[in-house]
Amino acid sequence: PSQYYLFHNTVDDSVAYAYHIYYSEIDMSLNSGLGAVTSKNNVLLNDTLIPGRITAVKHGNGRDWWVVFHKGHMSRYFIYLVDTLGIHFHSSQDIGPNLSFALGQACFSPDGSKFAMYDALNDLEIMDFDRCLGQFRNPVHVPINDSAVSAGVAFSPNSLVLYASSMLYIYQFDLTDTNISSTKTTVAVWDNSYSPNPPAATIFYQCKLAPDGKIYLSCANSTLDLHVINYPDSLGLGCNVCQHCIHLPAYNAFTIPNHPNYHLGSLSGSLCDTITSVQNLQVQSSTLELFPNPVRERVYASLNQTVKIKNVKVLNAFGQEMPVNYSIIKNGEYIEVNTSSLSQGVYYLELLSEKEKLVKKFVCMPNLR
């Protein structure tokens, strides 16, 4: 409970890109509860990266975390897993457009099911995210086509409405519509205000959903004010954008806090909720072992005692049964399951006997043939 990772980067070429992703470790039990940095500036990745768009979302098991950042000049996302054993590289995924540096922002929806990235050069990209597998899916490109040089993005508390702050405008999108681009609604136009006086214009920059259910927006200048969207779940002007309504005791230049949703729980009922649902299914009188794991074409299951198997299933991360063939071999000592038809990902082997149900996770790797 007192141990934290801080992920961060610098702008290493003084113009556009970061060359390193760092992490530092913080122990809040030290220094009489004020905390202390115990390990600083550890290099997690060396590459050419888009700076400032480190984002995170809780794993479907309700405990671990996915941490995501983007490579420059390409469509590649780097995805890391943070679990009880530390930080691990999970995968890189090429999806969406190639990104060049521009001032922008990325975030996950509060329910963790969607991801959005917006900047003034590459426009708005919206994708689904699989919290079980740590994968992006179904990219949707939304052109903005205005004169902005800075941009931000945030989801509403119900994860159904998206806001894009585009320097002079705040746009709203209805994510329940099959044609998201067509729902673009301008809910605010900069009112030519300055804070405290010219040239410190209160033009819109980054935005963030706060614990009080409101979205707060910083300015693309050093100012004494923030903007606020009071009712972001409401479509149209009912969302109630209030410009320069939050007055600060000191100047704030560009930034807004970048915290993930710490309160997001597990995907209840899914088989990646391994800390609760899957463990509850297992009866400890028998022990199920799988090998090899990861698997390519066949996985073998063995039990520590002889039981009569009534059924064998393979389920994907969403609990859907996958069509596979299996056979009992070596006088019932092993069960052989043909996994050659499965795509790459995480699966669960479920054995049902007369007395119990046993579930074990395995990872399917791509067939090399």
Explain how this protein is built.
It contains one helix and 27 strands. By secondary structure, the protein is mostly beta strands. Strands 4-5-6-7 form a four-stranded antiparallel β-sheet, with no helix packed on it. The protein has a four-stranded antiparallel β-sheet with strand order 8-9-10-11, with no helix packed on it. Strand 10 and strand 11 form a beta hairpin. The chain starts with a strand and ends in a 5-residue tail after the last strand.
Provide keyphrases for this structure.
single chain, 369 residues, mainly beta, 4-stranded antiparallel β-sheet, 1 helix, 50% strand
Question: Can you give me a brief rundown of this structure?
Answer:
With 369 residues, the protein is mostly beta strands.
Unreliable stretches covering 5 or more consecutive residues = 276-284
Q: CA-to-CA gap between the ends?
A: 46 Å
Helix content: under 10%
Tally of contiguous helical segments: 1
Give the helix/strand class. mainly beta
Silhouette: elongated
Q: What string, H for helix and E for strand, traces the elements in order?
A: EEEEEEEEEEEEEEEEEEEHEEEEEEEE
* Mean pLDDT across residues: 89
Give Rg in angstroms: 24 Å
Q: How can the largest sheet be summarized?
A: 4 strands, antiparallel
Strand arrangement within the widest β-sheet reads: 4-5-6-7
Number of strands: 27
